[in-house]
Amino acid sequence: MPLAKSEYLSDTWKDGLFKNKVVFCTGGAGTICSAQVRALVHLGANACIIGRNVEKTEKAAQDIATARPGAKVIGIGAVDVRKLDSLKDAVDRCVKELGGIDYVIAGAAGNFLASINQLSANAFKSVMDIDVLGSYNTLKATLPYLVESANKHKVDSKSLKPSPLGTGGRIIFVSATIHYRTMPFQTHVSVAKAGVDALSHSVAIEFGPLGMTSNIIAPGPIASTEGVDRLVPADAMEGYVKTQPLGRFGSVRDIADATVYLFADTGSYVSGQTLVVDGASWRMSAGGAASGNLAYPDFLLSGDAVPNVKGQKSKL
């Protein structure tokens, strides 16, 4: 159903900012990534979103398309980011139907709560494969089109004037802040997101000379998302909100605005960076899963397994 613009985009940006541009997004049916794509579509882009669940992905695409009359949004389900050929097929369809790819959001991820004692090698590997290998495969599959778009939209190095065609050749990796200070029950995610961050930095160095930019958006606790539902126990939610430096959780609009900033002319000289959108949350002492009935270190010392936590199985 159509959403009010205020729910996913601020009034800062001018309409038509991304006219005739195409964004390709893995994990595009998720709460955060769908808001990022919706904001870009509202501002003129067409989009292709990728997911594992066919019905959910196609339905999300139809919903995102309501952001702008005439918008083209393709939803491609049954795509496994761990398999390069699967992603290449989706990229080929995107390019065939929409004409190219100017922006990429690598947002597919897996998460669940588990102590190291509970965490099997296979569970650890599944998160590494989805987050790190999936991000790498997303890059590899879209790279030829990102380089092409970057070359077409280069900023004049002498006058510093933006290309009259707008921007292009930009990738954002959606990461997290968990690995900055670490968090109990999130070892697998911490290691995976550190790898994603390193990947983005390398892309910025190797493909910067071709005009590409590569950056990371690291969301903090964002309201009404699976991440918050999984990582903050219900009995600790109210107290956890009060510990936030700004006294609230973030919104998907905060992440979408950060995305527009990096993809628009405002981000033309921003590359190899991490844009943390968390209201200074990570600067506080560890919380989230380490609170409420799972309080640190008492729960770990008890030797008990993490009980009845929503989403214990990773979302492949």
From TrEMBL:
Domain of life, per lineage: Eukaryota
InterPro entries per UniProt: DECR2-like, NAD(P)-bd_dom_sf, SDR_fam
Catalytic reaction(s) noted: a (2E,4Z)-dienoyl-CoA + NADPH + H(+) = a 4,5-saturated-(3E)-enoyl-CoA + NADP(+); a (2E,4E)-dienoyl-CoA + NADPH + H(+) = a 4,5-saturated-(3E)-enoyl-CoA + NADP(+)
Residues in the signal sequence: none
Keywords: NADP, Oxidoreductase
Record carries keyword Lipid metabolism: no
GO MF, one annotated term: 2,4-dienoyl-CoA reductase (NADPH) activity
GO BP term, example: fatty acid catabolic process
Cellular component GO terms held in the UniProt record: peroxisome
EC class name: oxidoreductase
CDD domains: TER_DECR_SDR_a
EC number: 1.3.1.124
PANTHER family on file: PEROXISOMAL 2,4-DIENOYL-COA REDUCTASE (PTHR43296), PEROXISOMAL 2,4-DIENOYL-COA REDUCTASE [(3E)-ENOYL-COA-PRODUCING] (PTHR43296:SF2)
Protein name: 2,4-dienoyl-CoA reductase [(3E)-enoyl-CoA-producing]
